[in-house]
Amino acid sequence: MSASRHLVDPELAPLLELFPTTLLSDASLAEARARKLEFPIDPEADAAVSMERHTIPGPGGEIAVYSLRPNAVSARLGCILHIHGGGYVMGSAETMAPLRKPLVQALGCAMVSVEYRLAPETAAPGAVEDCYAALAWLNDNPGVTGVDPARLGVMGESAGGGLAAALALFARDRAEYPLAFQHLIYPMLDDRTSVRPDPDPHAGEFIWPHHNNLFGWRALLGVEPGSEGVSPYAAPARAENLAGLPPTFISTGALDLFADEDVDYARRLVRAGVPTELHVYPGAFHAFDFVPTADVAFRARRDSRDALARALR
Fold first, then answer.
1. Cβ-count burial of 134 within 10 angstroms (0-12 exposed, 13-18 middle, 19+ buried)?
2. CA-to-CA distance for 19 and 4, rounded, in angstroms?
3. What confidence tens digit (pLDDT) does each residue in 246-295 have?
4. What are phi and psi of 35, to 5 degrees?
5. Distance from the Cα of residue 172 to its chain's centroid
6. Most CB atoms closer than 10 Å: which of 56, 168, 175, 256?
7. What are the tens digits of pLDDT across the range 117-169?
8. Which of 123, 309, 146, 139 is nearest to 231 (CA)?
9. Which among 310, 207, 188 has a CA at the least distance from the CA of 259?
């Protein structure tokens, strides 16, 4: 019997039917990666925003990045460095970047999405190092990229949100390329959620359950989640000091497995003196904002877009 189905916003039910929860394993990972998800394309945004593929140098060889930019705009633009989700083991920038064209059109900004290396083939810190290579490329080549480095921030969803938070820590500590903001959508921040003795009985039942969370963290870390010595550049919630991070936006669903860790990270950011905006949406599970017609999803997308517009000024 479901422990939380009665708490789900009724307008989100179609997503549960479209994306039933599947359990990941070493044997099923290749099939999960190959599964093609169909998302509607906005024809107006598709025509108004161009996408180019670039290859840039990275720590493990060349990295692909996908650059989105409104057509016929020559001025330097504020830019979002986007990091896709997928539990650290799935997903691709090539697939997800085109879905961000409406956001780029609405904000009049640039966006660059990075094709970081996935686990378990590449363990931490390989993925965040790839993202840092993209950040360096954007800062070092403004004439090529057409972006304003002073208005450059990072955004990610799920594991991409975890990598965005890790990149913000990495950039702060290296002190080479400052970020204007970090924008974290239901970020995957804490490996210890996989092994906590008192899990939320109403969170994590749908889309991304405890089983998959444990699988993703094991793949990324190469050790058991909850082990001693896990780097904050892999699990940002492990960072002891959050001072000096850029202004932060965090959103999550109340039924998302990551709700507790996301709220706790926001609380710690506030206590560290970091300007922080937090949204928790009732009745919402992981990836709920992909439902185009649900009011709670509309509100989440609107809140996210409005926060990005403020951050990019």
1. buried
2. 17
3. 999 999 999 999 999 999 999 999 999 999 999 999 999 999 999 999 99
4. -65, 125
5. 18
6. 256
7. 999 999 999 999 999 999 999 999 998 889 999 999 999 999 999 999 999 99
8. 123
9. 188
What is the band of 188 on the pLDDT scale with cuts at 50, 70, 90?
Answer: very high
Domain range annotation of the chain:
5-311
Taking Cα atoms as reference points, which of 163, 157, 159 lies closest to residue 103?
157
Six-digit token pair at 112? 């660059």
CA–CA gap between residue 135 and residue 153 (Å, rounded): 9
At the top level of CATH, the class of 5-311 is alpha beta
- Write down the pLDDT at residue 99: 95
- What's the token pair of residue 100? 């961000």
